[in-house]
């Protein structure tokens, strides 16, 4: 009886174990077969993918050019790289450009493959550097390398196009500014040339030479004035010694050298002498006395007439006697000659001083006019220099600006050449097998947990009860 009671639970347990074991074994085998079959099929069907890597470095240097223009000024051109900017990273701009459709199309054309087969490269920007790392995939190692080289050539081409476009956009306004500066320079030069012709300022040192001439004339005037004063003192002293004024002495000397006057004076003197002798012998009405008196009067009239002709002024007997008596006497001819010479020298010096005064006044007036014109001429020259400086600076900056092609688009250099991969990057066999193994383990573990869940639940219920 007891044996029969034991056989019944054992049979039930055996049936239960046999049914559950088959079901869980089937699920475990099916799950693992699915996992491993899918993985193996993926490895067989999926074509390998190779990745070629290369790296670019962006130049972060800045440069400047400073050109001295003699007599004009300076022209400066500087270029600051966008790498050092704190507002943006030029590598991000390049990342957008390098993955653009235009670059990919160009790269596909260079690599001679369809556009849809040229996928976007994977770009990594290394922190705290100017390096850009590229990964380009291909069906074979050579294809991946060729696609990398084609991508690099397409990138360089696109950057060159962008730089050229930027230069052309900058050049147009600069060319307009240069043309405007050239026109201003030509107008300033034209105004300067026309004013030079009108003003009479033919050479730069003209005003300086004119000032030197005026100073030289002033020295000549001072010397002439000093000579005039010295001659005048001699003339005054000599006239004082003679007893006549300088003008009277000159008149007396003029009468002295005139032959007709001297002949008339001789006749007058002889008639006077004869008349004095006759007056001692005869009376005033004696015929000889009357004859000599008439002769004397005729000679006197001739003297007055001749002296008036020579001196060109009215003459009286008193003045004539004074002049005639001054001429007579031993040694007085030399004194009169010196007096006349001094007077002539004085007049010559006075005329020279007057001429110098007139010339100095004329030159001073001209100097004043030219100084005013020189001021305007300097303003026009300054305008020309400013126009020349602006034109030369604009022209120089236009030429130097050709070197500023790396401001917006920094220089790109190949840091690491595209490599030729020796192992495929996808599919990764080790990762797939490891994943399959992990899947098998987890699926089996899950089935085991499901297997033992009922006994544990019953034990837990009893324990709770």
Description:
- With 465 residues, the chain is α+β, with helices and mostly antiparallel strands.
- Among the domains are: 54-191 and 411-416; 208-371, no CATH class.
- Helix content is 72%, strand content 9%.
- It is built from twelve helices and six strands.
- The protein has helices at residues 2-45, 90-98, 101-111, 141-199, 206-242, 246-257, 259-281, 287-311, 317-327, 332-400, 429-451, 453-464, and strands at 50-58, 63-69, 73-79, 122-125, 131-138, 412-416.
- It has a four-stranded antiparallel beta sheet with strand order 4-5-1-6, covered by helices on one side. The protein has a two-stranded antiparallel sheet with strand order 2-3.
- The protein is rod-shaped, with a radius of gyration of 66 Å.
- It starts with a helix and ends with a helix.
Q: What is the tally of helical segments?
A: 12
Q: Report strand order across the widest sheet.
A: 4-5-1-6
Rg on CA atoms, Å: 66 Å
Instruction: Decide which structural class fits the backbone.
Output: alpha+beta
Low-confidence stretches: 1-6
Q: Rough shape?
A: rod-shaped
What fraction strand? 5-15%
* Major sheet details: 4 strands, antiparallel
End-to-end Cα distance: 32 Å
H/E series, N to C?
A: HEEEHHEEHHHHHHHEHH
Task: Work out the number of β strands.
Answer: 6
Mean pLDDT: 79
What percent of residues adopt helix (DSSP H or I)? over 70%
């Amino acid at each position: 009886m007891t044996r029969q009671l034991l056989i019944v639970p054992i049979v039930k347990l055996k049936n239960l174990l046999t049914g559950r074991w088959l079901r869980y074994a089937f699920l475990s085998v099916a799950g693992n077969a699915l996992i491993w079959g899918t993985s193996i099929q993926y490895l067989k069907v999926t074509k390998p993918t190779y990745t070629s890597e290369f790296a670019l470095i962006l130049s972060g240097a800045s440069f400047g050019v400073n050109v001295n223009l003699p007599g004009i000024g300076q022209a400066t051109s500087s270029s600051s790289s966008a790498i050092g900017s704190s507002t943006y990273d030029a590598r991000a701009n390049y990342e957008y450009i390098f993955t653009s459709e235009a670059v990919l199309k160009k790269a596909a054309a260079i690599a001679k493959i369809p556009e849809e087969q040229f996928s976007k490269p994977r770009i990594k920007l290394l922190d705290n550097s100017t390096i850009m790392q590229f990964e380009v995939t291909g069906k074979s190692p050579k294809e991946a390398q060729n696609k990398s080289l084609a991508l690099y050539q397409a990138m360089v081409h696109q950057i060159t196009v962008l730089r050229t476009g930027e230069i052309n956009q900058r050049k147009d306004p600069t060319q307009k500014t240069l043309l405007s500066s050239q026109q201003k320079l030509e107008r300033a030069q034209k105004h300067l040339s026309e004013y030079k012709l009108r003003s009479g300022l033919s050479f730069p040192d003209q005003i300086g030479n004119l000032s030197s001439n005026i100073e030289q004339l002033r020295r000549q005037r001072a010397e002439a004035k000093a000579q005039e004063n010295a001659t005048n003192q001699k003339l005054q002293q000599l006239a004082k010694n003679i007893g006549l004024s300088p003008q009277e002495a000159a008149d007396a000397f003029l009468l002295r050298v005139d032959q007709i006057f001297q002949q008339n004076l001789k006749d007058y003197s002889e008639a006077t002498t004869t008349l004095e002798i006759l007056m001692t012998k005869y009376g005033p009405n004696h015929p000889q006395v009357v004859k000599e008196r008439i002769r004397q009067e005729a000679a006197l009239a001739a003297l007055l007439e001749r002296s008036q002709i020579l001196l060109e002024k009215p003459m009286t007997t008193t003045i004539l006697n004074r002049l005639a008596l001054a001429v007579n006497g031993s040694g007085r001819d030399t004194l009169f000659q010196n007096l006349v010479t001094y007077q002539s020298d004085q007049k010559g010096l006075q005329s020279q001083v007057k001429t110098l005064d007139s010339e100095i006044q004329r030159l001073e007036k001209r100097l004043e006019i030219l100084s005013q014109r020189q001021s305007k001429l300097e303003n026009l020259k300054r305008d020309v220099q400013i126009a020349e400086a602006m034109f030369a600076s604009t022209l120089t900056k236009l030429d130097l600006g050709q070197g500023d092609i790396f401001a917006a688009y920094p220089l790109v250099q190949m840091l690491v050449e595209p490599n030729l991969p020796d192992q495929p990057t996808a599919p990764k066999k080790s990762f797939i097998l490891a994943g399959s193994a992990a899947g098998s383990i987890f699926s089996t573990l899950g089935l085991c947990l499901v297997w033992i869940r009922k006994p544990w639940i019953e034990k837990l219920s009893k324990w709770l009860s």
